Amino acid sequence: MNLILLGPPGAGKGTQAKILTKKYEIPQISTGDMLRLAVNEQTPMGIKAKEFMDAGALVTDEVVVGIVEERLAKTDCVNGFILDGFPRTVKQADALKHMLQSFGKSVDHVISIAVDQEELLGRISGRRTCRNCGRGFHLLFDPPRTAGKCDECGGELYQRDDDSAETMRKRLAVYEEQTAPLISYYAKESLLRTIDGIGSIENIQQSLLCAIEGSKDDHP
């Protein structure tokens, strides 16, 4: 099964992907993981990516697509994969489609996890991280026993810059501009299923599984 998870920052894609990985025994592949792996392994595309990263520039579509191709060619993807964070644009989606065709494969399911902006802001802005051990907390969903202190080591909890409401609004604006058009793209391909991303992890997971199993019935 070849699956793409779509959704704005904070929608819970990574959490759900980890659960699906265990159920279907296929790897979760995120853009960040792919970049780090390619750089560490010094693959041809990894070397190119490092040049952009060292210069403080965004890695180009050409290099990102090349890194995805290198990753999907690995043996652990033979039975499928879960893409989390790729594609980010329609251009990348076109490139992925042609790439998979060259492998004799195609995307089976695209699941969009929908969460409204206020809910996302609440999720992200409530995150806190320990300066000492790096453990994460949430002021609403997983608060520390003592305000401002880590349960594990007693270290100071702080809010990362990229978890602030201001930064989150900017990230959501970028998502709406670049990535949201993918919803229309995959709807036209008759691959898209949308689920509600508000609720418990278990309830969202059940909705996700129903969307996948239902789309299997639609696409024999």
If you had to describe this structure to a student in words, what would you say it looks like?
The protein has 220 residues and is α/β, with parallel strands linked by helices. It has a domain at 2-26 and 79-116 and 168-218: P-loop containing nucleotide triphosphate hydrolases (Rossmann fold, 3-Layer(aba) Sandwich), CATH 3.40.50. Helix content is 50%, strand content 15%. The protein has 9 helices and 8 strands. It has helices spanning 13-24, 31-41, 44-54, 61-72, 90-102, 117-125, 165-179, 181-188, 201-218; strands at residues 2-6, 28-30, 81-84, 109-114, 127-130, 136-138, 157-158, 192-196. It has a 5-stranded parallel β-sheet, sandwiched between helices. It has a 3-stranded antiparallel β-sheet with strand order 6-5-7. Strand 5 and strand 6 form a beta hairpin. Helix 1 packs across helix 9, helix 2 (31-41) packs across helix 3 (44-54) and helix 3 (44-54) packs antiparallel against helix 4 (61-72).
